[in-house]
Amino acid sequence: MGKLKALPNRLTSLRPGLGSLPPVERTRDEDRMLHAPWRKLYKTARWRALRMVILTRDMFTCQWPGCGFMTADTSQLVVDHKRQHHGDEVLFWDERNLQCLCAPCHNSRKQRAERAQRH
Fold first, then answer.
1. 88-91 long-range CB contacts below 8 Å, 24 or more apart?
2. 21 domain residue, yes or no
3. pTM score
4. Residue 17 reports pLDDT greater than 80
5. Is residue 51 part of a domain?
């Protein structure tokens, strides 16, 4: 067998075809939808109807232990998934997995409890 000639490194001699692309700019909501497409379920008529069923069932009262905040102003209440569904539609629509929470309990206490479970 003869000697092998050293081949030129062709990769260094190729010119970049596209160059650099500008970064894609998305709003926070668009970014969340991209990474969690199940979020669109919250915009459906089915969810809005189910939300009212849960609020009525729980008598418009926060179910967080020790809270008991009650109001007819539904903008101050959140229908919360007891167990995170992560896109599992069976768990998403399961009424036994849903509870009424006031916004402060949902946005602080519940979020803190979920973060503690992850660690």
1. 89/38, 89/41
2. no
3. 0.69
4. no
5. yes
First-to-final CA distance of the chain: 61
Name the residue type at position 89: E
Residue 83: the pLDDT is: 93
Q: Position 24: which residue type?
A: V
Q: Provide the domain limits for residue 35.
A: 31-118
Read out DSSP for the chain?
A: -PPPPPPP-GGGGPPPSS-PPPPPP--HHHHHHHH-GGGGGGGSHHHHHHHHHHHHHTTTB--STTT--B-S-GGGEEEEESS--TT-HHHHH-GGGEEEEEHHIIIIIIHHHHHHHH-
Query: How many domains does the structure of the chain reveal?
Result: 1
Q: Residue 99 — φ and ψ, nearest 5°?
A: -150, 155
Residue at 14 is within a domain: no
Residue 59 forms part of a structural domain: yes
Are 100 and 67 in contact, with CB atoms under 8 Å apart?
Answer: no
81 neighbors 92 (Cβ within 8 angstroms)? yes
